[in-house]
Amino acid sequence: MSHVKTNIRMAKYYCPYCNTNKIVEYESYFKCTLCKSKFDKFDFATTEDKSDLLSLGELKGIAKVLKKYKPKGKDLSELFEDINDDSEQK
Ligand SMILES: [Zn+2]
């Protein structure tokens, strides 16, 4: 993975949804001018299969859902610990 750093610098950004390079670059992310999705530059450069890439909007949505359904009084890391405990008991 020593080439990752180079990839970030050399990365040619494009929208993995529309396959267009009609994007607007910002400091840490870029935005597709067609579907308006925003993608994290670091995510883009480090994700080999671009079809796996989630837009920042989707990531926010996931974070929201996790927050909404997590048990009260627990933070997310505790929640994932619980999940791990469950799988070990089986
Ligand atoms: Zn797009």
Could you explain how this protein is built, in words?
- The protein folds into 2 domains: 1-53, no CATH class; 55-90, no CATH class.
- 46% of the residues lie in helices and 11% in strands.
- It has 4 helices and 3 strands; from the N terminus they run αβββααα.
- Strand 2 (29-32) and strand 3 form a beta hairpin.
- The N and C termini lie far apart (35 Å).
- The model has no long low-confidence stretch (mean pLDDT 81).
- Zinc ion is lined by residues 15, 17-18, 32, 34-35, 37.
Which helices and strands appear, and what pairs or packs with what?
Elements: H1 4-10, E1 23-25, E2 29-32, E3 38-40, H2 41-46, H3 56-69, H4 76-89
Antiparallel strand pairs: 1-2, 2-3
This protein binds zinc ion (ZN).
